[in-house]
Design goal:
By secondary structure, the chain is α/β, with parallel strands linked by helices. The protein is built from six helices and nine strands. 28% of the residues are buried.
Length: 209
């Protein structure tokens, strides 16, 4: 199997994913220059971004994590404030609202792929800032409940679709950005009262008390 050289953390994610799929690193060939092949089979897409994903693709990804044990945390808050964009500016004020209700705070980029799979497999309720880390919802149990925080300009379609495939519950909270021309990468804040109401909803939707 040939792959474009990516470098960094994303290359490790790709390598670890392919290992779970039965393609260990010695069978991977990384390309960092223009290469001509006499014969090459190109894998097709299994989704129509951002809304449509093949159910078989979701089931396949679930299968990749079959042997990974579920983590111990039933409630998880996913932060992306270690990144350079779409940061939650008042996250330090909001985190006590989550931790008081038993949420475990995690930054997915600090975990290996297997650790991320384990974390999401154990979570009945997932809350946090929309971004690549929440793509791990595909490994969550059926019926997962999601409270998603994001910028005023970002749609929820991609992640809502994943939760629909899981037969779960989804609520999105649009924040406020101070950027003069906000986009999906803008930093933002969310009203604590909205978060509290969202947490109440999540507990009811999940059946927790």
């Amino acid at each position: 199997m040939v792959l474009a050289r990516r470098g960094g953390a994303m290359e490790a994610v790709v390598r670890d994913t392919l290992a779970l799929a039965g393609y260990p690193d010695p069978e991977l060939h990384y390309l960092d220059a223009l290469t001509r092949f006499e014969r090459l089979i190109v894998l097709g897409t299994v989704s129509h971004h951002p809304l449509v994903k093949a159910p078989s693709a979701i089931r396949y990804l679930e299968g990749l994590g079959r042997e990974v044990p579920a983590g111990p945390h039933r409630r998880v808050y996913v932060s992306r404030n270690l990144g350079a964009r779409r940061r939650l500016t008042n996250e330090s004020d909001l985190l006590p609202l989550f931790t008081a209700r038993g949420y475990h705070v995690v930054s997915p980029e600090t975990l290996s792929l297997v650790e991320q799979i384990s974390m999401f497999k154990g979570a009945q309720i997932v809350a946090g800032n929309l971004g690549a880390g929440l793509a791990n919802l595909v490994f969550s149990p059926a019926g997962v409940t999601v409270l998603a925080l994001t910028t005023p300009r970002m749609a929820h379609d991609f992640f809502y679709d994943i939760v629909c495939h899981k037969g779960g519950h989804y609520r999105g909270l649009q924040g406020i950005s101070t950027d003069p021309q906000p986009d999906i990468g803008s930093d933002f804040s969310v009203d604590p009262a909205m978060v509290t109401a969202g947490l109440d909803w999540a507990e009811l939707a999940c059946g927790d008390d």
